[in-house]
Amino acid sequence: MPMKKPEILILSVSVGLTLVFSTLFGLAGSAIIGTFWGWFWITILVLLVGFAVVNSYLLRKDAQIYEAIQLEALKEISKITVRLTCAYCQQFNDTQITVNQRNTFKCESCNQVNGISMQFMATTLTSPIESVKMPIENSGTVEFKVTS
Ligand SMILES: [Zn+2]
Questions:
Q1: Tens of pLDDT along 62-83?
Q2: Residues surrounding ion ligand 1 at CB below 5 Å
Q3: How distant, in Å, are the alpha carbons of 13, 19, 42, 140, 143 from that of 146?
Q4: What gap in Å lies between CA 36 and CA 26, rounded to an integer?
Q5: Distance from the CA of 94 to the center of ligand 1, in angstroms?
């Protein structure tokens, strides 16, 4: 898999900084106690563990943000816009409803709060079984479809 230029740069800088830090700690540490290479490898180990912890934390944070976005999108999808007439003044109002909760809307015309009642109806999935054409004076035909 070919790497993109920014990735190579970030990798080079990370490796470079790790080596610089390890060398510095190696020099500083060995001046007090132990050997340069002992301090050098321990510093690399500590940095690698540090990177792993930070990386997994960032990944988890990304996942949480992603989940929040998904949830928000799902809420958006579940909203349906319907046009209803106000029960008080018969004015048309466009309002958003959500199927899984109680819905109300405030009339734009009379400011009364309306409740919204939803009714669902089951139908059969049959296609029209009969098609009746009725002649209408001077304007061709109108078609009535009878379904069952
Ligand atoms: Zn109204």
A1: 999 999 999 998 888 888 888 9
A2: 86, 88-89, 91, 107, 109-110
A3: 75, 82, 84, 20, 10
A4: 4
A5: 12
